[in-house]
Amino acid sequence: MPIDHDHVLSLLDQFNIEVPSWGFADTGTRFGKFLQAAAASTTEEKLADAGVVHRFTGCTPSVAVHVLWDFTAGTDPSDTARMAGKHGVRIGSINPNLFQDQSYKFGSATSPNPVARKTADDHVTDCIRIAQAVKSDLLSFWFADGINYPGQDDLVTRKRRMSAALKKWHDQMPGDMTMLVEYKPFEPAFYATDVADWGMAYLYSKQAGPRTKVLVDTGHHLPGQNIEHLVAFLLDEGMLGGFHFNDRKYADDDLTLGSIDPYAVFRIFHEIRNASEVHGTDVSKIAYMVDQSHNLKPKIEAMIQTVTTAQELYAKACLVDRKKLLDAQARMNIVDAEETLRDAFNTDVKPLLRKWREKKGIAPDPMHAYRASGYEARVGKERTEARKARGESSSGSSYA
Ligand code: LRH
Ligand code: MN
């Protein structure tokens, strides 16, 4: 099948990926955190690193921020938006933090403790204010809410509290803002999580209001879950809001995209292209975001690797010969149908991406160009000095 390069190049033009501020900071597991000299500690350093990734990849114009990790109480959030602009990026999705406060021991919006529910409500009100100040139109919710033991709390009462809270926050948002509901089967709760799977997130979103969609974090599924199937389902329902991309072998490992199962990511992108090209579904508003913790890899290299891998797998999905696929499906010829996907997946798209980068006026090999820039060594020195000057040994205590 002749490859319509221009078609794929124009689809790549629309394929922007949002990077997480917390992906540039020192992160770890409960067993420890390995520090990197070049790790970002301050919000400005995280935005500077995001700017570097955008400069070398050309497709990461926005940065997801986590309110308690990236905004200091009492400071003007629009300063952060200006800072982002200085580094050639903009503030993307606003992530409320409804899991770190001590009052959230039994949950946030679902907690039997009214103090926790008030803390959560006040925080979300603040997040909506910040979103308006930085001109972000995306509020991205993840709830650690859940219980650890059977009988610990009434699951239905918690469900009703969650519905009421999401409905209130939906109606509180200005009309141009959308909110995403991210589900997760477990961790930190280890018996029941209040937003545990796509079905619960779907219903909570429907009940909250028309500007509420489901966020699929690829690491938030029990082993064996067919993620591209639920993506196809949510898309056809008009309920897919976005993704947190990462990879995993076991649980919410937050490894770099495509490092374990690139074909799985390709299959997700295939369903998105299929929904658009075969079923006419509007896929233009899907928020493609990365959510990873780079505990061992150099953080900016891990992010560049992730973004270029996502571009490659998306370009491959754009190459699926859908006319041939539909014909094989109609003939119920399984092998021919599967081979149309494998042909696309096995196509080397690096030449196409080099052509796309050439058109964008950026280096053909982002990783090579970044390494040649010497950025990591330079900021490693600067930030080690800066941390010393601030009397910090490492890049701070919080998660990111
Ligand atoms: C929870 C999660 C959520 C974030 C956090 C950094 O596991 O995926 O999206 O807020 O990671
Ligand atoms: Mn996530």
Strand and helix order: HEHEHHEHEEHEEHEHEHEHHHHHH
Low-confidence stretches: none
Spatial arrangement of strands, main beta sheet: 4-6-8-9-10
The structural class is alpha/beta
Strand content: 5-15%
The helix content, as a percent range, equals 40-55%
User: How many individual helices?
Assistant: 15
Q: How many E-type strands?
A: 10
Small molecules in complex: 6-deoxy-beta-L-fructofuranose, manganese (II) ion
Rg, alpha carbons: 21 Å
Distance N to C terminus: 47 Å
Reported for the largest beta sheet, the result is:
5 strands, parallel
| Arithmetic mean of pLDDT | 96
* Approximate shape: globular
Give a structural overview:
This protein is an alpha/beta fold and about 400 residues long. The protein has 15 helices and ten strands. The structure holds 6-deoxy-beta-L-fructofuranose and manganese (II) ion (MN). The site of 6-deoxy-beta-L-fructofuranose has 9 residues, from loops.
